[in-house]
């Protein structure tokens, strides 16, 4: 059978396709002729009235962007391909020059670190509000995809290191982390308000739950859930809970203690959480007449506070999470929260040091009362008693 002849329409469509294809090719990052972005930013912002900005440029860089220059360069390397993979139309400064990847990353980090308005952040860089919005969201999308390896549950070898550190620091054998949660407060338009999003303090908020290791690195997070639910309910809605209940997480080797005592892997949490075989909470106050219980609570509290401190550092470093968000897109807000957690971990993973005064001076959930969960699993009670006896013997 003779091959079919191509119609003129097909040829025309083919030419059109080739033309379109040539337009959508990945562009090479443009050569930027603007002066070094940091020099101009530092000159413009280093003497801002009312801010205690370090006089040293290296420390000043960290003040504005929360990361050292080396870590900043690493972040740029993660997102560079994504930020130059689309024509940067509209991403220009007031002089009409295209923005470099470094300047785009700086704009996004400053927006997340300061929590200032897009207008204010744009003014400090010489760009408009729409540019700040576009740059920040492109950065969030890129880092969310490219930095996944900085927030993952540890493998067995890494978990053994974490358990050894928890025991050395707090005396708790086979402890794998500390859990806590915080509210991200926001305003919502009337059409989106509901009792689900209205929390115990009558704020509209979104929950963030995190589990951290001995270095306050996030090992697991869950967010996107309404702040109106209880902390214990948030836990039970998480994938982490389902994995633990199914025996697929915190399922490592049993640790044999003195005199035949043994304990499984577990994490520690406050009284807002249920007492479970793998989540150990403190004894209630009416049980503290026993020296065994009070001794256990003291050790438990020291370990649990790692979660509190991690959230204080997270919301202090990335102040966008600590300020009231003005009508955020609730579908996009989880990505913003995740990226801030990724940046928190990147700082730790790169051996970077934050300024000691960056963390919030008060509690990360200032104004929120302590929730109390009365759920007690008998097996969890046994694990807690075993740990309490072991600590008293030591």
TrEMBL record:
It is found in: Nucleus. Residues 179-345 form the DDE Tnp4 domain. Keywords: Hydrolase, Metal-binding, Nuclease, Nucleus. It comes from the Eukaryota. Its main location: nucleus. InterPro entries: HARBI1-like, HARBI1_dom. GO terms for cellular component: ESC/E(Z) complex; PRC1 complex. Residues 1-21 have a biased composition (Basic residues). One of its GO terms (molecular function) is nuclease activity. Its cofactor is a divalent metal cation. Residues 1-25 are annotated as: Disordered. Belongs to the HARBI1 family. This is DDE Tnp4 domain-containing protein. The lineage of its organism: Eukaryota, Viridiplantae, Streptophyta, Embryophyta, Tracheophyta.
